[in-house]
Amino acid sequence: MQGYALRVSETRVTETENLPSSGERRNARVILNRLAKIYPDMDTALQYANPWQLLVATVMSAQTTDENVNKVTPVLFDRYPTPEDLAAANPEDVEKIIYSTGYYRQKTKSIIALAGDLVDRYGGEVPSTLAELVEMRGVGRKTASVVLAEVWDIPAIAVDTHVKRVANRVGLTNTADPVKVERDLMALYPEERWAEISMTVIQFGRDVCDARTPRCWSCPLRDRCTYDDKTPQP
Ligand code: SF4
User: Fold this and answer.
1) Who has the most CB within 10 Å: 98, 106, 117, 171?
2) 160 a catalytic residue
3) Which CATH number belongs to the domain containing residue 37 in this structure?
């Protein structure tokens, strides 16, 4: 599949050319419908009590599981309940708390800087636009999309490593660039399905379409998949 030439402003498609055909949209719909049947009502597994906590937890979820993040966030937010508290934290103390999530030094820097930016720029309130979210240090497009969809119910597609891999394997995109993957998925699906894409595809990528050994022999998308190196039945 060729990448679609779409321009996306914020999370909205504003200009289009070379749009997907009706057949490509139908195929994309079948794929998502099958995943939705397997994973109905998917929500983030990250536990949080407010938008600020989700923002921090999402940044910390890089390169680890949501379960690992959930083990440390109660301690972290008990110690630093507000963005102001975390912005003023001693990095060594934060590192000790989040150590088990991996990359703890970088994550500590990111969440302290993020807390500082949140206080300085937005008075401690999590903003509700992609442009404002990604202005903060430590917040990439993926994290911003998770917050927009989860907290503000704004259509957004968070493209992580699982979404990128699966979307390429099943032929919904053909690029490694996460922004282009996001753009191609936005072209294929109506806005009301954008938020659901990330959660279902991420879970499918973890459970079935593994990076190294995809379980192709029992995959519900096998007949739709364009991946050449399907894993044979063991
Ligand atoms: S057939 Fe294999 S590569 Fe294709 S989507 Fe299924 S698990 Fe992934």
Assistant:
1) 98
2) yes
3) 1.10.1670.10
